[in-house]
Design brief:
Elements lengths: L3 E2 L2 H21 L5 E7 L3 H17 L2 E7 L5 H13 L5 E4 L9 H7 L11 H8 L8 H12 L8 E5 L6 H10 L3 E5 L6 H5 L4 E4 L17 E4 L3 E2 L5 E2 L4 H4 L5 E2 L6 H23 L1
Parallel strand pairs: 1-11, 2-3, 2-4, 5-6, 5-7, 7-8, 8-11
Antiparallel strand pairs: 9-10
Helix pairs in contact: 1-10, 2-10, 6-7, 6-10
Pathway: One-carbon metabolism; tetrahydrofolate interconversion
Catalytic activity: (6R)-5,10-methylene-5,6,7,8-tetrahydrofolate + NADP(+) = (6R)-5,10-methenyltetrahydrofolate + NADPH; (6R)-5,10-methenyltetrahydrofolate + H2O = (6R)-10-formyltetrahydrofolate + H(+)
Subunit structure: Homodimer.
Length: 285
């Protein structure tokens, strides 16, 4: 069996074409979508992520406002900056790049963001709306995964979906979206016994744990759809995913590569959420 490598970068470019058209319509009525990105500290990885998001905004016509703060910023000051952005009508989306320094309560910061501008979809109001099947914003990585499956015409209804990793950012929200799409969902975590017995059942296997090559060819069902969310550095210092690509090739039906799979779609969905927020602001006026 030849494994299809899913090109997330190519799909993200298709999303951007659609977004450019939607932004053009918004600009015709005097609205330009705006995204504020807050970066605390000088983590090189976070700086790269933020730079990629800002560049993507510029390419399609979203105004990006990047605010950088020192690592020792006090929590109350950071919250005040978020409250200011909540009131700024030129800003449709607010994103705080994670992780934050240890002295800052991440939950408190996320909850400070107006849920109508929470384009990451992490606020408890948005998490609750997702749980009930009526999301205002889907978290970007799960949203991107669903678009990948849709674009590849993967049948979700009635399928066995196994998710390895139970984070609030990926594992839990993608489980909800898959459940709503009609899949039978199993969530595995670090305490799961005999992980292989679960992963071998999966028609769709989504892995998001941050451990290089933890899933190999002996752990998957022939023809399975593999979604690799992990971003790691291997022993050779090259970027790799949570799935060992060489060992699953010719066993899996589909796989998202790392890099070039889920990552580009995550940024594309962040921009999609920002545009949707701008469109929604018209209806609310």
């Amino acid at each position: 069996m030849e494994t299809k490598i899913i090109d997330g970068l190519a799909l993200s470019k298709q999303v951007y074409v659609d977004l450019k058209n939607r932004i053009r319509k918004l600009k015709n009525i005097g609205i330009t979508p705006g995204l504020a990105v807050i970066l605390v500290g000088e983590s090189s990885a976070s700086q790269i992520y933020v730079r990629n998001k800002v560049k993507a905004c510029e390419k399609i016509g979203i105004i990006s406002k990047q605010e950088n703060y020192q690592e020792n910023i006090v929590e109350s000051e950071l919250l005040n900056h978020i409250y200011r952005l909540n009131k700024d009508t030129s800003i449709n989306g607010i994103l705080v790049q994670l992780p934050l320094p240890k002295h800052i309560d991440t939950h408190k910061v996320i909850e400070a963001i107006d849920h109508n501008k929470d384009v990451d979809g992490f606020n408890v109001i948005n998490a609750g709306l997702l749980m009930t099947g009526n999301p205002l914003f889907c978290p970007c990585t799960p949203y991107g995964i669903m678009q990948i499956l849709k674009n590849e015409n993967i049948n979700i209804r009635g399928s066995e979906a196994v998710i390895v990793g139970a984070s609030n950012i990926v594992g839990k929200p993608i489980a909800m979206l898959m459940l709503q799409a009609g899949a039978t969902v199993t969530i595995c975590n670090s305490k799961t016994k005999d992980l292989k017995s679960h992963t071998k059942r999966a028609d769709i296997l989504i892995v998001a744990v941050g451990k290089p090559g933890m899933i190999n060819g002996s752990m998957i069902k022939p023809g399975a759809v593999l979604i690799d969310v992990g971003i790691n550095r291997g022993l050779d210092n090259k970027i790799c995913g949570d799935i060992d690509l060489p060992s699953v090739k010719d066993i899996a039906g589909y796989i998202t590569p790392v890099p070039g799979g889920v990552g580009p779609m995550t940024i594309a969905m962040l921009l999609t959420n920002t545009v949707e927020s701008a469109e929604r602001s018209i209806k609310d006026q």
